[in-house]
């Protein structure tokens, strides 16, 4: 969003790279879900079996984590200062960790 302001070409380029990364990640994420076919923990026998649920919105791979790490890698590459890398990768870790915790707790 910051890249829409005039005079911020690097931010604009980063935004476009983020969009491209999200599209590319989606092109990998979707077939992985169809192939893995993992049931969600509350489906079937409650064990999250693989190769049982061949559609989108399955349990593997985790979309939140996959998309967040992809975006974090672009930000860390475009803004290589240590604090920016720590912030982007820290956010991706937080999303992954909290998503994993809420799933394991059944929330």
Largest beta-sheet characterization: none
* DSSP summary, beta strand count: 0
**Ends apart, CA distance between termini:** 32 Å
Count of DSSP-assigned helices:
3
The chain-level mean pLDDT equals 83
Instruction: Indicate the proportion of strand residues.
Output: under 5%
Radius of gyration over C-alpha positions, nearest whole angstrom: 17 Å
- The H-and-E topology, N to C, reads as HHH
- The class by helix and strand makeup works out as mainly alpha
Search tags:
107 residues, single chain, mainly alpha
Structure in words:
This protein is mostly helical and 107 residues long. The chain has three helices and no strands. It has helices at residues 9-36, 63-78, 82-104.
Q: Quick gist of this model?
A:
By secondary structure, the protein is mainly α. The chain has helices spanning about 10-35, 65-80, 80-105.
């Amino acid at each position: 969003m910051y890249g829409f302001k005039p005079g911020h070409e690097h931010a604009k380029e980063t935004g476009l790279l983020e969009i491209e990364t999200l599209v590319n990640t989606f092109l990998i994420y979707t077939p992985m879900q169809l192939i893995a076919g993992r049931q969600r923990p509350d489906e079937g026998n409650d064990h999250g079996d693989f190769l049982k649920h061949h559609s989108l919105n399955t349990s593997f791979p985790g979309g939140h984590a996959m998309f967040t790490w992809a975006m974090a890698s672009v930000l860390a590459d475009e803004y290589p200062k240590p604090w920016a890398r720590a912030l982007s990768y820290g956010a991706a870790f937080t999303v992954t960790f909290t998503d994993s915790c809420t799933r394991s707790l059944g929330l």
